[in-house]
Write a structure and sequence with these properties.
By secondary structure, the protein is of the alpha/beta class. Among the domains are: 83 residues; 89 residues, Orthogonal Bundle (Non-ribosomal Peptide Synthetase Peptidyl Carrier Protein, Chain A), CATH 1.10.1200; 110 residues, Acid Proteases (Cathepsin D, subunit A, domain 1); 37 residues, no CATH class. It contains 16 helices and 11 strands. A 6-stranded mixed β-barrel has the order 2-3-8-4-7-6. Helix 7 crosses helix 8. The radius of gyration is 37 Å and the shape is elongated. About 12% of the residues have low confidence.
């Protein structure tokens, strides 16, 4: 049948969330969509275009930076295979199992929702077999449920299975819900005899409220299956450092920044001041160092820019640091590119740069149109990439411009590239032992002079340099 494009039918994919079995489920949906819509009969180019529309913006940005060849970019199967390898490489089994072990039933959460959350978390734990997975879910139910009486009943069961544990928990929860309902009905009947029925008219604030519910962790729509589905689950907030929510919804807000955009640099000395000629035979030098945030660490090849006032990177760095765009801090820094256009950031991320044993804390400003990572002159200087005397060139020795030793000043260039003035008196005061006229023994080992028998004396006729301090005494002796 002919293919009819309807974007609403496309299965959506966000690889920040859809990992493990969720990605396998999306892949099955994509295969079904291709078959039912007739897309499988279309050209490879049309298939790739439809696939791109399935991706979220963050996912598409990551896919474009996976290093695929032109041939692979034109093949849907190659793109999906590369995404799977990327997802598998970013699943840390130890972290996933730790998150699973830390999951407990939340106040007000039903048992069925709790088990559903555990099943979601266990998908990326890579337990050895299905039987091992079921036993781990059973153990986490015993460890994580809130009701102590139910835990006691479970521990009394011999050869407890997952199915039996779920039956006991569901029965206990249903019984308590029924008792609570009966008790509530009795009290409501008594209260109705004592008090008049309340007005059915809703308060104005409730009647006019049109704000949809949002997730308290990420600020987006609520997630089916509990908090484990939230992208903020297990991540630290970049404002308060606590787990489970993004900076976007943090209650410990930073002081409100001035909303006036702050220009950075002047003319070409700005974010993208480094000029790289497209035909240059020698590419701009780069260096590899470690970058750490609250939620991850990665090794990255960066461009040190001695003319950049801030450190900047594209959005792709967030995935490597296990960060999310909603966890960025606000930034009002608006640098100018080399052509004078303003660049508006999506936020900034506190990071720690480490080169060898040297560390430097900095803010990494995230821009949607920046490729790679660029660090500022201040970071380069603190990491030792640039010398301490930057922007002045380091001087190896003190270069004396004049040699007269009268009372007029002597201009010298010191090692910090600054210029100072010296006089004869200041030199004598700085080196008094050189000018006090006392001949001292040299420090070192004691030695003996042995004369060779039959040696004939000879004289040296070339002049020898006489220290200034001894010239008057030598002239008097001669």
């Amino acid at each position: 049948m002919p293919y009819v494009f309807r974007q609403g039918d496309l299965p959506k994919l966000d690889i920040q969330i859809d990992r493990g079995s969720d990605f396998a489920a999306w892949q099955a949906q994509w295969e079904s969509y291709m078959s039912l819509s007739g897309l499988s009969e279309e050209s490879a180019d049309k298939k790739v275009q439809a696939l791109n529309l399935c991706f979220s913006r963050e996912t598409l940005s990551i896919v474009q930076n996976l290093g695929l060849s032109d041939t692979e970019k034109a093949d849907v199967a190659a793109i999906i295979s590369a995404i799977k390898k990327y997802i598998d490489g970013h699943i840390n089994e130890s972290v996933e199992r730790r998150n699973f072990r830390r999951r407990s039933q939340q106040p007000g959460e039903t048992f069925d929702d709790f088990v559903l959350a555990l099943r979601e978390l266990v998908k990326t734990c890579n337990f050895c077999s299905n039987d091992c997975t079921r036993k781990n879910i059973r153990d986490q139910i015993i460890e994580g449920i809130l009701d102590g009486d139910t835990v006691e009943d479970l521990l009394q069961e011999k050869d407890l299975t997952l199915d039996r544990a779920m039956q006991v928990c569901q029965a206990q929860e249903a019984a308590k819900r029924q008792r609570a309902s009966m008790s509530s009905g009795y009290h409501d009947s008594v209260a109705a005899l004592k008090n008049p029925p309340p007005s059915r008219r809703k308060p104005l604030s409730q009647a006019t409220s049109s704000h949809p519910p949002t997730c308290s962790g990420c600020g987006n729509k609520p997630h089916f299956g509990g908090r484990s589905r939230c992208p903020a689950f297990g991540l630290s907030c970049n404002i308060c450092g606590k787990l489970g929510h993004f900076a976007k919804v943090c209650c410990s807000k930073l002081p409100q920044p001035d909303t006036t955009p702050t220009p950075v640099g002047t003319n070409a000395l700005s974010l993208l001041s480094t000029i790289r000629h497209v035909t240059a035979t020698d590419p701009a030098p780069k260096i590899t160092l470690n970058i750490s945030s609250l939620n991850g660490t990665t090794a990255a090849t960066i461009l040190p820019d001695s003319g950049a006032d801030i450190s900047a990177a594209g959005e792709e760095i967030l995935a490597h640091l296990n960060e999310h765009i909603d966890n960025l801090l606000p930034s009002t820094t608006v640098p100018k590119a080399a052509n004078g256009t303003e660049m508006h950031p999506v936020g900034k991320l506190p990071i720690c740069l480490k080169l060898g044993n040297t560390e430097f804390s900095d803010d990494l400003h995230i821009y949607p149109d920046v490729c790679g990572i660029l660090i500022s002159w201040k970071a380069c200087k603190n990491l030792g990439i640039l010398p301490d005397c930057y922007p002045y060139p380091p001087a190896v020795t003190k270069a004396i411009c004049t040699t007269t030793l009268d009372e007029s000043p002597i201009n010298i260039i010191s090692t910090d590239a600054g210029t100072s003035m010296l006089t004869k008196d200041s030199i004598i005061n700085e080196f008094p032992r050189v000018f006090d006229g006392i001949i001292r023994a040299m420090d070192g080992e004691q030695f003996h002079i042995h004369l060779t028998s039959g040696a004939k004396p000879f004289c040296v006729t070339s002049p020898r340099s006489i220290p200034f301090a001894y010239r008057d005494k030598l002239a008097a002796e001669l």
